[in-house]
Amino acid sequence: MKIEQLPIAAIQPYAGNAKLHTAKQVEQIAASIQRFGFNDPIAIDDDGIIIEGHGRLLAAEKLGLKTIPVIRLVGLTEAQKTAYRIAHNKLTINTEFDFDLLKSEFIKLEEIAADLMLTGFDEGEIKTLLRGDSGIEYDESIAAGIELCECPNCGHEHVKNKR
Fold it and tell me: What is the pTM of this model?
């Protein structure tokens, strides 16, 4: 896999992209790129059309970047491109967090005075994650972001991302 730097003008969004990117999310992606660098190249097809990475393109445009890293996924059929576009977006949200490990990671970041907002969690979610030793209390005000659930497979409380 070869990473190339292409001018933004050479990259075309896919007209049928079903993934929505809110202004808030684009801001979060832009902040992440500013802080950590552009570490996740956009995947394009043979014609320069995005297969995955529309949010990163929007963030790059917001930041005024002239070139961005891309990888070319060559030789895919139209059906493979479409299926991969959907799978890439869906598979990233088909996951949950281990609450104890997540809390531990946030504590580490808090101890070194890192900017917790760069994690993509909002202030209310972070406060909820860090509250209490025996778990967190469900707060209706952050219901749009996270929820508690009982995992039947492992039997411990964890945070499930609802986004």
Answer: 0.73
